[in-house]
Amino acid sequence: xxxxxxxxxxxxxxxxxxxxxxxxxxxxxxxxxxxxxxxxxxxxxxxxxxxxxxxx
Length: 56
Hints:
Blueprint: H1 7-28, H2 34-55
Helix pairs in contact: 1-2
């Protein structure tokens, strides 16, 4: 089953994800804090997933 979504929704999720990632990266202080680092990794995964689906 292929994921089909509104391109503007995917773009909005990507932009919000990047802002979230930037904030979590600052809070994690160089990946020293565990929960913030997990937030960065999950956020980057979601951001890249939405961005690559946007480019299809």
